[in-house]
Write a structure and sequence with these properties.
Elements lengths: L15 H24 L6 H10 L6 H12 L6 H24 L3 E2 L2 E2 L1 H5 L2 H21 L2 H24 L7 H26 L4 H25 L5 H4 L5 H5 L4 H8 L3 H12 L7 H11 L2 H18 L8 H15 L3
Antiparallel strand pairs: 1-2
Length: 339
């Protein structure tokens, strides 16, 4: 049976940047989605079913978008940009499958996670398949530079996952360590996605580095905002349960700031919840109250805004095209969004 297409938000409700992306690379995204579904094909029925479950759940596709934009930025007219964008989305999907198992998440983007539908074992194995399929595609593509970028990114992402796991429930985690985890676990794939487009066009080293740096800073801003939204959004808007990070013991920037600036009573609360996993009644509400009282959300958003501004600075030496303008808009969107 054909896969159902994800429900799209009404065009009139889309943020300006997403409307602009539709105008610039709409057909390229359609090609990417078609390749994703085609490459998900497997005689093992559960693989395409589970892959489609998460890929078609209405995500923003920011990582493949970066590959398409960076390729078009330099006037690329071939077909391989969509193929490589699909690879980037495969890798992202694999990490989501693994993350949801590790975090025991029940919802993502407003839908049941794969592990809540099929249990924890199958998503890990299907995630492994998606990683493997990605490298099969890259080997067939035959560009060793692109293969190295993606392989290096996967290794760094795995390191970030382990670093985050080790830091869980540890309130001694510093802001510097937190940001290193963010850059490894999340921002690295943003960097690889943007970098690939320049490599595909055989651009000079300085332009390749500028796009990689742009992606890294954009991804960092994006994740810092994600972590702030876990204490400020609503379930309906966010698409997952608010407070998941809190109950999973993740030490994110709002928590680090609130703990660092808290009085002894506040620190005792954080320690009880996050280190000893003792959650009193209305613990999440009290955590949000403390984070707001200490200005920790504002602090996190200020840091994210700085990263986004630095990302835009990386674009200054690149061709002044509509694609570059869209990339700058993406940096602004990363901190202005509510989901």
């Amino acid at each position: 049976m054909p896969h159902e297409k994800p429900a799209m938000k009404p065009q009139s409700n889309l943020p300006p940047v997403l409307k602009r992306l539709g105008e610039l690379i709409g057909p390229d995204l359609e090609r990417t989605n078609a390749i994703i579904l085609e490459q998900l094909n497997s005689q093992v029925e559960l693989i395409p079913k589970m892959g489609a479950h998460i890929i078609e759940s209405g995500g923003k596709r920011l990582r493949p978008v970066l590959t398409l934009l960076s390729a078009r930025l330099f006037g690329y007219t071939g077909q391989n940009d969509a193929l490589l964008a699909a690879v980037i989305e495969f890798i992202h999907t694999a990490t989501l499958l693994h993350d949801d198992v590790v975090d025991k998440s029940n919802t993502r983007r407003g839908r049941a996670t794969a592990n809540s539908v099929w249990g924890s074992k199958a998503p890990v194995l299907v995630g492994d398949y998606l990683f493997s399929r990605s490298f099969q595609i890259l080997v067939a593509h035959g560009d060793l530079k692109v293969l190295q970028i993606v392989a290096d990114a996967c290794a760094v992402i795995s390191e970030g996952e382990v670093m985050q796991l080790v830091a869980t429930n540890d309130l001694s985690t510093s802001e510097e360590h937190y940001l290193e985890v963010v850059q490894r676990k999340t921002a690295t794939l943003f960097a690889a996605a943007a970098e690939i487009g320049a490599v595909l066009n055989q651009r000079p080293t300085e332009e390749v580095r500028a796009l990689a740096r742009y992606g890294l800073l954009l991804g960092t801003a994006y994740q810092v905002v994600d972590d702030a939204l876990d204490y400020s959004a609503t379930n309906e808007v966010l698409g997952k349960s608010v407070g998941d990070d809190f109950h999973e013991g993740k030490i994110t920037l709002p928590v680090i700031h609130a703990y660092r600036h808290g009085n002894p009573e506040e620190r005792a609360f954080w320690s009880a919840c996050l280190e000893r996993k003792e959650f009193p009644d209305k613990a999440l509400s009290h955590a949000i109250q403390l984070i707001r009282a200490r200005g920790s959300l504002d602090y996190a958003m200020q840091r994210a805004t700085t990263f986004a501004a630095e990302a835009k600075e990386q674009l200054a030496t690149l061709p002044a095209t509509p694609e570059r303008e869209a990339m700058a808009m993406l940096a602004d969107f990363s901190v202005e969004r509510s989901y």
